[in-house]
Every structure is written in structure tokens, then in C-alpha cells.
Amino acid sequence: MEQDEVRTCDVVDLDLVVVGVAAFGAGYGDAVVREHLRRMGVGGRRGVEKHLPGCDVEQRAPVVGTRDQELLAVVDGFAVVEMVAARCGQPERRCGGGGVPTPRDGIFVACLVGDANVAALGEMWKGGGAGCKNLVMVTLGTGVGGGVIVGGKIVVGQFGAGGEIGHMCVNYHETKQCGCGSYGCLEQYASATGIVRLATEKLESETRSTLLKKEELSAKAVFDAVKEGDEVATEIATEMGEYLGHALANIAAVLDPAIFVIGGGVSKAGDVLLPFIEKPFKDRAFFASQNVKFALATLGNDAGICGAAKMVLGD
User: Residue 119 belongs to what H/E stretch?
Assistant: First the structure.
């Protein structure tokens, strides 16, 4: 294989499989990455991000894989960072605090970073949180993810679990188990699947007329019905918003963010979503947090790659 080919970082889309990479120097990175960076207004340097949800570590991940023919197998316990750095012809690496790469011109640096964390960095830089150095991104999808930015830096934490807000306990009386093994986690109520669960339980005893149909329930269906003024759907959205708004009030008391950026599939409901979160937030928030802003994420699937580019560029 030619040296230029070795330096080209071939990336992969596998469910829950990611390698986070920041590469420095002209000519590094593949065409897809270059196009992402071009559209984001970033030139001259290359960066690419892939994620393993809930995993921010320097060296190892439970499962990794690559499309490269020489590294096709999915390997359990493989040293991800070392593999990526060596594959790109520059085994030397340096990581700053919290496992985030420290740029050094001309040197390839590899780092494994959680998807929500780099997405939060991207939204801080070029998205819904632009101009704010202290923010929390909340991703409402199949689960509830989060990314915390303090002083413009990702908060990873000691064990890589920084920002796992979906597993805050918000209901101490819950008897159904969360996917994480605990009970009463935020994502059991505020995720897309959580909203469907709330809707299913409500419709079991509901006698009022509603646009919602048991066999066609989804988070989108609930918020589409809200937009049509459906009373039952509005009550479901209110319940979901109370769980999330109260949880974010607790987060604000600890982190004091300037803004909460709401992303993920549920956020596609648009502006109708935010009031359901903001009202219960203000009802419970510490007085100093009353002016925290709420905004929808704007970068979509580009958030992660944009955050990786920011890691490449540094401050």
C-alpha cells in the first residue's frame, strides 16, 4: 500500500462502533471528511469522528471494526487508539485532559470520544450553542444522551461517563428496568421510546377523542397531534417535559450552563417541543439559573464531525 493511502483514514459506520480521530496536516483524511469540513468552513486540516456511546477512553473499547480489508474483523478488546494512529503512519499520540487530543502540527493524534460529547462541541462551535462556552447538549433519540461543555472544553470525567444524563434517576418509584439495569432513568420517559411508553400507558385508560392510534404510536405522532391541538397528546408531551425539565433544573444547579441545546430525533418536532421543557425547568430551577436559554440543535448529523474538526483546530 502506498504511503498516501496509509495516511488516508478510512472510516466506518457500524452500529455503536466508533473510532474518534483527529488528523493534522494537509492531505490527511478522506474525501467525505474533507467535504464535511469544507461545508463547515474549515480548510487546510482534517478531522474525523466516530463514536462509541458512553465511551471516552484513551486506549480501549469493547468493540471496534474497520472497513479496511486488512482489519476487517470486529475485535473484542482491541486497542483502538494505537490501531488508528499506527494505521495512519504516525504512531505517536498525545492527549490532553479528559482524553481530548492536544494538537501539534504535523503529528497524527487519535482519541476515542463519545458521540454526544463531540456533537456538543460541534453545536457550541457552529450550531445552536454558537457563542456559548458553557452548555449542555441533550440528545433525545432512542435513548437520552448528553454532552457537557465547560469553558469550551468537553467534560469527560474520571471514568468517561461525563454527560450521561439519560441515566439520572428521575422516578424513585419506577418498577420497570432501564436498559442500563437501573430503574427510573430519564431516558425511560424523555426519549422517543419513553414518549411512546407514556403514550401507550395513557391510551390504555383514555376515553377522550384523540388523533393518536395505539398501533401507530411514535414520538413524532405525539408531537404532530400536539400541533393539531390534541388534548391527550398535549398531556403526554407535558408529562415528558416535566421529567426532562426538572432533570435539567438539577443539572443547571451543578453546571450553571448558559444554554441547553436539544437535539436528536425528537427535536425534529421543532419549536413546539421547547415550551414543554422550559416551563417545568423554570418551575424548579435555582433562581440564578432562571435565565438559562434553550435552543434546538442545528447541525444534525454534521454535529459530530464538526466537533471533531474543532478538536483538530483547538482554541
Answer: helix 115-126
Task: State how far the Cα of 155 lies from the Cα of 292, in Å rounded to an integer.
Answer: 19
Cell numbers for 95: 492527549
Helix (H) or strand (E) holding 261: strand 259-263
Find out whether 54 and 147 touch, Cβ atoms under 8 Å. no
Counting every residue written for the chain, the total comes to 315
Q: What does pTM read for this prediction?
A: 0.73
Q: Which three cell numbers stand for residue 112?
A: 476515542
pLDDT at 45: 36
10-residue stretch averages of pLDDT, the chain, 315 residues long: 29 28 32 46 38 35 29 36 55 40 46 78 94 95 93 86 92 94 96 97 94 94 97 98 98 97 95 97 96 96 83 72
Report in angstroms the alpha-carbon separations of 227 from 67, 190, 206, 261.
43, 18, 20, 21
Q: Are the CB atoms for 208 and 197 separated by under 8 Å?
A: no
pLDDT for the residue 233: 97
Q: What is the CA angle 199-200-204, rounded to 5?
A: 115
**Longest pairwise C-alpha distance within the chain:** 69
Amino acid at site 120: A
Q: State residue 84's pLDDT score.
A: 55
> What pLDDT does residue 31 have?
45
**At which residue does the C-alpha cell 461525563 appear?**
162
Sign of torsion, CA 187 193 196 201?
A: negative
Position 50: which residue type?
Answer: K
HSE-up of residue 1 (Cα within 13 Å, Cβ side): 12
The gap from C-alpha 175 to its chain's centroid, in whole angstroms, comes to: 27
**Closest to 249 (Cα-Cα) out of 290, 191, 295, 189:** 290
Q: How far is CA 13 from CA 18, 20, 145, 222, in A?
A: 8, 12, 19, 30
Residue 314 DSSP symbol? -
Grid coordinates representing 296 are: 434546538
